[in-house]
Write a structure and sequence with these properties.
Length: 212
């Protein structure tokens, strides 16, 4: 597996901080534009590198690493992972939405989905004045929804509603807080990425689909 590196830091440290950062960014853009993946170690101090090796080859040779897809494109955000983590022999894929930036421009924001061979184990939604996330690994349904400054949480089959840090138990999830989020999650631009979460929320809350 061929590896391509940035120059040693001693090369950049000869310059003032602002110039140093600009030089590093320039080298990074050049290498990330030319090569397929960027690999960095999670538990060791080995230097990160760029490579054109196949993903399967990288995974078979190295462990405890993050692999960033330098060729990620926002046109295929919902089907192409932005990055991968290899931990204890297992591969975890990270997905970002259409607003993420390619790695040539830098490291992007939060993942909207995390996936293994078993499917997605986490999805996160953040849009106009609302957010939602669920712990899919929990044995009991557990999710958190925010609309404005109001929260609707489901824990141990009980709904809690209120402002952050001051939620109270409720018999059901208020539809006036849940429906605006569902409508945004159902927008065409999301390409059905959140359909399974919409189904789950409707099932848990008893809200009728026709109201969307």
């Amino acid at each position: 597996m061929d590896r391509y590196y940035l120059p040693e830091m001693s090369v950049f440290n000869r310059y003032e901080h602002r110039v140093c950062n600009r030089l590093i960014s320039g080298y990074h853009r050049k290498l990330a534009s030319k090569h397929r993946y960027f690999v960095r170690h999670q538990l060791s101090k080995e230097r990160p590198f760029y490579t054109d090796a196949d993903l399967s080859e990288i995974i078979s040779v190295l462990g405890d690493i993050e692999i960033i897809n330098c060729r990620w494109d926002d046109k295929e955000w919902d089907t192409t992972p932005w990055n991968y983590f290899v931990t204890s022999g297992k591969v975890y894929e990270g997905y970002k939405d259409m607003n993420a930036i390619p790695f040539t421009q830098g490291y992007s924001g939060d993942d909207v989905g995390k996936r293994t061979d078993d499917g997605f184990y986490f999805k996160y939604f953040n849009s106009n004045n609302c957010a939602y996330w669920r712990d899919r690994k929990s044995e009991t349904p557990t999710w958190h929804l925010r609309y404005g400054n109001q929260y609707v949480n489901l824990r141990n089959d009980v709904f809690y509603v209120g402002i952050f840090g001051s939620t109270v138990e409720a018999k059901s999830a208020p539809s006036d807080l849940v429906l605006p989020l569902l409508k945004q999650m159902n927008a065409k631009k999301w390409r059905g990425f959140y359909d399974d979460e919409i189904d789950f929320i409707l099932e848990q809350t008893g809200i009728e689909r026709r109201l969307m």
